[in-house]
Hints:
Blueprint (H helix, E strand, L loop, with lengths): L9 E5 L6 H10 L9 H6 L5 E8 L2 E13 L2 E6 L13 E2 L4 H15 L2 E8 L4 H6 L4 E10 L4 H6 L3 H16 L3 E4 L5 H13 L5 H5 L1 H13 L3 E7 L4 E10 L2 E9 L8 H15 L4 E3 L14 E12 H24 L2
Parallel strand pairs: 4-6, 11-12
Antiparallel strand pairs: 1-2, 2-3, 3-4, 3-5, 6-13, 7-12, 7-13, 8-9, 9-10, 10-11
Helix pairs in contact: 6-10
Amino acid sequence: MTSPPPNDATWRELTSWGVHGPDWDSLVGSAERPIPFLRRWWLDASASPRRRYLLVTRGSQLVGGAALDVDRVGGIRRVRFAGQGVLCPDHLDLLARPGHEGAVADAFASWLQRLGPCVLDLDGLVPASLVSRAVGVESRRTETAPYGVLPGSGQQWMAERSSSFRRSVRRSTKALAETGLRAERVGPDGVARALDDFEALHATRPGRQDLLAEMGTLRAALHAGLQHDEVWVHRLGDDDVTVAVSIAFVLGDRISLYQVARSTDPDHDGAGTALLAHVIAAAADAGVGSADLLRGGEDYKSSFVASAHEVHRIRAGRGRSGRAAVAAVEVAARSRRRLRARLG
């Protein structure tokens, strides 16, 4: 689809990047907060027949757009961010070149009008988002994403942590080192093995089935991101055994700690914490300015960083059938909550 726009901007709905792929990456990289989940290497790894790229141009210049998945649920179209779901992309929004936010918001609203009745289910959203402005729906906070500013060195970052955290990291690191286990960043030749170990470590723990089912997509994305030097993979182990694996994204002035897998063997107690501390300290030493632990307000994250972003969601229906579909979902959710409350 192509629009006759309400201003001098034009939007096009495409199923591939066309000539605008490099310009999209340039926009992502120059954003105030570059998002790895909007990089083409991430989006291409999760591409499917549902994928739609809404690209907004002024003349020949790409000024913004959105990467979306459009499918059908119960006979009605559903619009979600690209790759939304098990892999949990975070800090998402419409992409806009500074000064062109209004044109991008208008284009998204125009595209939705052309799409017709639908359900919007946009998760992993930044607060005060451009997409919220475009659709006239206020988002709601669903989770937090802990983050912190990094000083000029790993030593200084560690000195700013609590004394109990420092003792715990030192104790675990020393105990693991005494058995020959050390943390290291994995080079290109070792990534495949590290991801095998990551998968094996998660396979021993309950509740990881959905993530393991997406490992093919995740592996493809990580190998692509490594080509751009925007993925860091670290392991804690020796030549024979791996007891923890960390996956992180480094883009702009920020490291995003995405996933960690660790051994549950009591002999490896503290391996996950020791590895994450090593990764963040290495990022500080490399001049990275902030660390984002992404969505999830687990208590352990507060030991590493002191602040938190909000993660928002929009779930809204457009048109009579879209509103009815969302209402039915909300009624079902309230019923489940009441049932859980009665069961204790």
